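[job 4471] stage=fold_predict status=RUNNING
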Amino acid sequence: MWPLKFAVLLLVAGLTLANSDEGWKNAKSIYEFSALDIDGNKVDFNKYRGHVTLIVNVACKCLLTQEHYKKLSALYHKYSESKGLRIMAVPTNDFAKQEPWAEPEIKEFVMQFDVTFDMFSKISVNGGQRAPALEVPEGEAAGLPLQRHQMELHQVTG
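[job 4471] inference complete, writing structure tokens
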């Protein structure tokens, strides 16, 4: 379970718009972060407080993309109102270059799946091109890659 939680911390750290590369290391919950949505608007993660939140990395060219978007959309439509579910979809091109498109093309593509959950701007989560906030302190699983189709479910407490 520890690698999964750490991988999600890396994903969240990559999303953050913190001014300092050190800022994410002191965070006590996901609610201290913010990121740009697919339209370039800043989203304060505090909006997810009190909600069960699923964070998932996505890619439009993955063989499982259609199935995943359909299921995520159905899950969101079923539980967003009745149970307060929120989904944060984060595109990345880090896995087999399966997300080559820019945000406008990604947004247009996902419309066919009736995606109404939150889509974020594309980020890098692995390798030398990853966001500076993803730097891991020496001795804390440096180099641990985020896995393709990684998902994390957060409780309402963050």
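[job 4471] summary: DSSP finds three helices and six strands in the chain.
[job 4471] exit 0
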